[in-house]
Backbone:
């Protein structure tokens, strides 16, 4: 105690000053914070959904639709591969989670099965020569193609993870700060966007799959066949939103897709003044777009978004350079929203809303007020207890450590831009309430040492050294509990776990080092003959 290491003093002073600096922006009006010098920290606590209001949406990822989409695309590959091998077939269709077809010539069944085993699907990881689909030969010259269950499950999980990233990019491009996007169970995603009070616009941005493609129109189909519902192979009938025709017959082959975009932005047509979306493609997309417009001058192609035709313009001439535009019945807001969707990328799997909740800002303000009152009441109660049991000096030193502890907690959370939720406030109050436990252990150990006849200095040293093991063990159990909650929990549970983790670390620091430095200064200044807590 008499020869306190200088590094301890420097560390305590530095931690206190930094805690105060990073906490200060939370105590000042926004205008004052904005006027602070550039070297001063300006980050404030980021309040969660339950404190500042916003929208909470729970989505489920439609893995069945994902499987059907993958099978539909695979069916087109099967059609092409068998035609290339001059193998005739009929009844090609997706049914009950698999693709079925019948080979016309019985002598070609084996060749067809071998061809499909080598060409459809993707290589199966960890299995030499294996693929992620099985091709089974059934009676009556029929073939059945289905996904390997484990392979599709892995693909579905990847799709859920990719959906999370796409959603995050979309919300970030809306200008919303720090959305909380977490996974719930196997195929659900919970999205909490604090400060966003319009859940309908949020659903429009988040839930739209946004798969863009350019496909040629089939203008040679017989009107009699179409009227009878007979769609030519390789074509599909899509609903239109361009206001000119209710639907269009388009070829399934996608010439250019949204994955080939490098940029998308909203703008205005210089001639009509109407809103539009301007696109730019990568090298592959630019070449394909240039080739298809050069080869099909005078014909029409469809700009398709999520199986709906946005527009079907006539190709008036080759369009080189890798740029294009989408025109339609856009407002400036809808054009900007579409550009946001295209820039962020499409969702690998469609989603549907399972639950929707909106929290008003007034409710959040009430929660903050209630939390502040609870913290003040807890702090006052702790102060009264410590002063009553250990006197004004030792109790006051504990309270100074408690203040430093609070500054460091708020400072760290402001620095890391962690989201503070209502459970997080509970974690903060809990941390401050139990922070004096370490001081109680240290002071009681000092009393025990004095009763055992130890000298004043020896008793104070023993109070810190012998209580340290108990303090460390107790706080390590808190850390482990908080880490478990943080890893397996979501949303508010993570907020509570993060606040608790930070609080445990700062509590150990303030209760041990801050208390030790302050007591050492007091001892050197007064040279007491006895301890006030004896």
Residues:
């Amino acid at each position: 105690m008499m020869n306190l290491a200088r590094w301890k003093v420097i560390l305590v002073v530095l931690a206190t000053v930094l805690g105060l600096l990073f906490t200060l922006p939370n105590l000042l009006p926004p205008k004052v914070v904005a006027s602070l010098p550039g070297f001063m920290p300006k980050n404030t606590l980021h309040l969660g959904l339950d404190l500042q209001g916003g929208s909470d949406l729970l989505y489920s990822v439609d893995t069945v639709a994902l499987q059907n989409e993958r099978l539909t695309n695979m069916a087109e590959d099967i059609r092409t591969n068998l035609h290339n091998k001059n193998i005739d077939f009929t009844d090609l269709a997706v049914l009950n989670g698999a693709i079925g077809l019948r080979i016309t010539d019985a002598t070609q069944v084996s060749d067809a099965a071998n061809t499909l085993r080598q060409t459809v699907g993707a290589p199966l990881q960890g299995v030499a020569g294996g693929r992620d689909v099985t091709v089974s030969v059934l009676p009556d010259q029929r073939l059945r193609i289905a996904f390997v269950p484990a392979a599709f499950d892995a693909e579905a999980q990847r799709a859920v993870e990719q959906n999370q990233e796409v959603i995050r990019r979309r919300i970030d491009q809306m200008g919303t700060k720090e959305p909380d996007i977490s996974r719930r169970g196997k195929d659900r995603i919970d999205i909490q966007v604090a400060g966003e009070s319009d859940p309908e616009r949020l659903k429009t941005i988040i839930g739209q799959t946004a798969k863009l493609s350019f496909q040629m129109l089939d203008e040679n189909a017989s009107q009699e066949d179409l009227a009878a519902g007979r769609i030519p192979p390789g074509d599909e009938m899509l609903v239109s939103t361009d206001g000119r025709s209710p639907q269009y017959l388009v070829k399934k082959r996608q010439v250019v897709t949204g994955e080939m975009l490098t940029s998308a932005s909203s703008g205005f047509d210089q001639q009509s003044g109407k809103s539009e979306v301007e696109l730019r493609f990568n090298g592959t997309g630019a070449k394909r777009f240039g080739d298809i417009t050069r080869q099909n001058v005078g014909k029409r192609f469809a700009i398709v978004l999520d199986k709906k035709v946005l527009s079907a313009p006539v190709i008036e001439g080759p369009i080189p350079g890798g740029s294009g535009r989408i025109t339609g019945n856009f407002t400036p807001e809808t054009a900007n929203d579409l550009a946001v969707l295209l820039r962020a990328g499409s969702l690998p799997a469609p989603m549907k809303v399972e639950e929707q909740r909106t929290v008003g800002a007034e409710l959040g303000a009430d929660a903050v007020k209630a939390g502040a009152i609870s913290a003040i009441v807890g702090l006052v109660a702790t102060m009264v207890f410590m002063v009553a049991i250990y006197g004004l000096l030792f109790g006051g030193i504990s309270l100074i450590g408690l203040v430093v502890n609070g500054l460091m907690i708020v400072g760290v959370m402001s620095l890391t831009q962690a989201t503070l939720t209502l459970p997080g406030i509970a974690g903060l109050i809990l941390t401050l309430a139990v922070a004096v436990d370490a001081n109680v252990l240290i002071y009681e150990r000092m009393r025990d040492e004095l009763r055992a006849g130890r000298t004043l200095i020896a008793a104070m040293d023993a109070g810190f050294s012998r209580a340290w093991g108990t303090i460390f063990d107790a706080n390590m159990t808190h850390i482990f509990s908080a880490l478990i909650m943080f890893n397996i929990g979501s949303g508010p549970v993570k907020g509570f776990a993060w606040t608790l983790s930070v609080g445990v670390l700062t509590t150990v620091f303030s209760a041990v080092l801050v208390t030790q430095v302050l007591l050492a200064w007091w001892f050197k200044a007064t040279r007491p003959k006895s301890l006030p807590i004896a």
